[in-house]
Amino acid sequence: MNASKVREEGNFTEEVKEFIPPTHVSTDPYDIEATTGDLSLLPKYHYKFKEEYKATHVIRPGSTDELSKLMKKCYESSIPMTIRGAGSSCYSASTPTRGGVVIDMRRMDKIHDIDPKNMTVRCDAGISWLRLIETLLDYGLGPKCYPTSYKASIVGGFIVTSGKVGVGVLRNGPMKNAIRSLVFVKPDGSVEKITRDSQGDLKLNDIISSFGILGAVAEVEMEITLLNKSMEYVGYGFHTYEMAVKFFRTLKDNDASKPFFLSLSDKNFEKYAHWTYPARAFFVYAVYSDTPSVTSQCLAFAKDVASNLDGLAVEGWYLKEKWRDLADTEVNVGRWCQNLIFQEYLVSDDKLEDFYDFYIKKTSRQRYRNAFYLMSGTKGENRIKLFGLSDIANSREFFGIKAVFNDITNFNYRNNDSLYTIGVVNTQYFLKYNSERASYLRNLKYNLDPEDLLNSYRLTKAKMRSWRLGLLFWIAKRLYKTA
Q1: Whole-angstrom Cα distance, residue 289 to residue 66?
Q2: What is the reported pLDDT for 49?
Q3: C-alpha separations of 125 from 37, 158, 234, 452 in Å
Q4: Is residue 120 located within the same domain as residue 201?
């Protein structure tokens, strides 16, 4: 690094320390390394050895005012910014692609107001879902929905990634429906309050699933709900996917009472995610939260449906443990391998069989340790997460699994569905198949951020062109077959 560059960075650091406590302004290389990755190993493959992508600072603002001043300083100095939550969404969603400053939101963790009368809470976007849930519990209240990664993830992250699938979503609707208003900091540091009815340059729909390219969510006002007195668990094993998905879909479509949480998994997922697992090949799991009379009716309904589909009831202790460990199950799969590879898909209710058939077709041709996990979102939508368990030393297997996921991704888009999470790694698919939305976001981002300083290479432009990616995976599949 040349002398003038060092001086510029030194001046910037000292200027930022005037409004953010010095202990929260870090240039430590270990802090930067730890903060610029996520739960996957993808950033290590894509960015670890590319010096120009590495951040120079990790800065942790503690309030909307500090965040606004920091972003204004970066904008005026043409310093790239990467907004980071807890790094739990993966796909390099919080990985710098142009260096600069990583803005770690987790110090912004205050609850400003809980209003039991109007059933709302107002809090900082950097608060963890776990802390918010535990605080609301003292009032007999809870969020309407939240992600399964609630132990680690933050409120703002669920908003800007998707908020379409998670705990409570099937019963109460997606995160977007719960939001009353947001305090939003634009790339130039200006602050704007955005409500459901806002008609300015930015609307709530622009921010949902924007992956931070338009600015940073600083504060959230959202609707909350009363905690119900009864929680019951349902779990049945099935010999075939067809029977399991029929049971899953029947519970989902039961308008009398929607599950608070609903999932379908194969035996591999249960085996890798838990120390013990059900005997049959597929497992459907539902959690009901309502009055005692309603939850008892739900249990009876599920039992009747399962008996007609040859479902085998799973013991109650396992169902309770699964709920207790819900936030850890997807991460637990990684303990069985050195390199956990995964991809997430948004799949329509009526295409669950089509997706699974194609998945089986691909995995039977290129065999690797795999797992399948399906989670219900709102009516009509589901998240499917596919896992590949690989060895870091076996690069052919790594790229071979990635090539399989590439084929499945293209199939899913051609089937008029999409990926669930985009980030940096998946942007090329978004550009190829969602060109109209990408063009809209590109124009909006240019008006707000003409230098593309904020969360660059997400949704509006990609690091790798589609044809190069296709060629890479075509070669990878053939190398894997010969391995």
Answers
A1: 40
A2: 45
A3: 20, 10, 33, 23
A4: yes
Contact 388/401 with Cβ under 8 angstroms?
A: yes
How far is residue 50's CA from residue 184's CA, in Å, rounded to a whole number? Answer: 32
What is the rounded CA–CA span in Å between residue 474 and residue 147?
A: 35
* CA 344, chain centre distance (Å): 9
pLDDT in tens, 343-366: 999 999 999 999 999 999 999 877
Structure-token pair, residue 92: 């390099």
Angle, helix 241-252 to helix 292-308, in steps of 10 degrees = 150
- Helix (DSSP H) and strand (DSSP E) numbers for the chain: 19, 18
Question: How many domains are there within the chain?
Answer: 4
CATH of the domain at 146: 3.30.465.10
Residue 126 CA from chain centroid, whole number: 15
What pLDDT shows up at residue 43?
Answer: 47
Instruction: Look at residues 151, 159, 94, 99 and name the one whose alpha carbon lies nearest to residue 124.
Output: 159
Taking only the tens place, the pLDDT of each residue in 464-481 is: 777 777 787 878 777 766
Residue 404: CB atoms within 10 Å: 25
Give the angle 106-166-154 at the CA atoms, nearest 5°. 5
Query: Which range is least confidently modeled, 191-200, 219-228, 300-309, 394-403?
Result: 394-403
Q: Please name every residue paired with 208 in a beta bridge, in sequence order, or none if there are none.
A: none
Task: Decide which of 170, 205, 226 is a domain's last residue.
Answer: 226
- Interatomic CA distance for residues 129 and 35, integer angstroms: 19
Three-state helix/strand/coil letters over 302-362? HHHHHHHCCCEECCHHHHHHHHHCCCCHHHHHHHHCCEEEEEEEEEEHHHHHHHHHHHHHH
CB neighbourhood size of 302 (10 A): 24
In terms of residue numbers, what domain contains 271?
Answer: 230-331
Residue 249: CATH number of its domain: 3.30.70.3450
Q: Is the pLDDT of residue 154 over 80?
A: yes
pTM for the predicted model, two decimal places: 0.92
